Amino acid sequence: MAPPPLLAAACLACTLAMFGTGLSDLRQMLATKSVENIQFLPFLTTDVNNLSWLGYGCLKQDWTLIAVNTVGAALQTLYILAYLCYTPAKRPVLLRSLLLLAVLAAGYGYFTLLIADPRTRLARLGLFCSVFTISMYLSPLADLAKIVRTKSTRCLSFPLTVATFLASTSWTLYGLQLRDPYITVPNVPGIVTSVVRFWLFWRYPPGQDKPYRPLPA
User: Fold this and answer.
1) Is the dihedral of CA 19, 25, 29, 30 positive or negative?
2) What is the pLDDT of residues 55-104, one digit of tens each?
3) Phi then psi dihedrals of residue 206, to 5 deg
4) Considering only CA atoms, which of 196, 211, 125 is closest in space to residue 164?
5) Nearest to 206 by CA among 196, 198, 195
6) Which of 9, 91, 157, 195 is deepest in the core (most CB within 10 A)?
7) Is 206 helix (H, G, I), strand (E, B) or coil?
């Protein structure tokens, strides 16, 4: 069953808005010519996630998935290149990037050469994408626990939380419409963690005395 065009457009708009929050980091790197207070790992893991879902979308011939993750992968690759340009520790960053390429090449070989049946290939790639996305949504839980201990939300980004909530909700509805659990299930944790963040913003309003560094979604 094809999803309604409005729902597909909502997935596209909300997800691109979520990816676009990284533009503030890009502007900071370009303005200061440094990577101070900017984390590299979220760019790398999000790029892997986008490329994996892009492969799933191509196998499924889902143009919404293809469009969203093509733009997302391009943005994350741009952030990685900017980080590599301005970081003084180029060697570890380059090694991590090469490791990413090696993992992607190995994954491509596994899914295209070792799995001949298209339906099995789609199911296994969907399972990988789902597990990876869930792990990304759950990874900031330690930071949320720290916020409760410190009673401060200065390190959280409210616009990013809103964008994550809307994107996760849109994709959950999209997956339900397609009856695709590989799309539906991994986005539920995104809704849950976003609701938890909304509660933290309400419980501990962000202070104005210190600048904050947004946490990755």
Assistant:
1) positive
2) 999 999 999 999 999 999 999 999 999 999 998 888 888 888 888 888 88
3) -60, 135
4) 196
5) 198
6) 157
7) coil
